[in-house]
Design goal:
Blueprint (H helix, E strand, L loop, with lengths): L3 E6 L3 E6 L9 H16 L5 E6 L10 H4 L4 H13 L4 E5 L2 E3 L1 H8 L2 E4 L4 E3 L13 H9 L1 H10 L2 E3 H7 L4 E2 L5 H13 L3 H11 L3 H19 L3 H12 L9
Parallel strand pairs: 2-3, 3-4, 4-6, 5-7, 6-9
Antiparallel strand pairs: 1-2, 7-8
Length: 250
Amino acid sequence: MSDVTIEQTGDHVALVCLRRPPNNFFDTALLGALADAYEAMGRSDWCRAIVLCAEGKNFCAGLDFAGNARQDIAALYGHAVRLFAAPLPVVAAVQGAAVGGGFGLALSADFRVASAGSRFSANFSRLGFHHGFAMTVTLPAVVGTQAAAHLLYTGRRVGGEEALSLRICDELVDAEDLLVRAIAFADAIAESGPLAVRSIRATLRQGLVEAVRLAMDHECAEQERLRDTSDFAEGIRASAERRPPRFTGS
């Protein structure tokens, strides 16, 4: 089975699913397949909206630094830019954790549906690392500059109810209703004129792709620089050992 699958639900909504349970760690291949799916639906004659979902306990835990620390980040972000450039609106159904780059992936969607048990964390600083996935652009746009700075500096976890108050998610539903509600959200979009929705979305997102590309260029450079530090190595060890990190600033 592919790590990314597409299923038609209803007349005009595509269910695009990540299938690397339980944590759905991504890499260049997975993001490339996801971007391919988005672009294929953008070219289809039936799809008007996408629901992004994931199989397993967690929506997405980002890049597995412990198992894939030398991933080519520039190549990975090349596919991430394609997600932002795709033409159709996306509703993300976020179960469990959206952590690090997984939080960034959730923010790449137009809307997010979550439950009280969902949790979001931009945990990069807790790894001794710079944030990525264009969260320089997307997180302040959603929560505001002050709240974004607090989340990025501390890497703290945000539960579903707080996520709703911060506007990280657009709806909070019971966990068992999460996917059904995300599909209903997308169906409501798909009932509008498809040419109008694409046009309105393009207007609202004018300049976003270039801003995202520039942000990821800078984020990538900072991540490459910090990846060779002692603090990053300590952050990865501490995360794997489930203990507080002991950073030295080196």
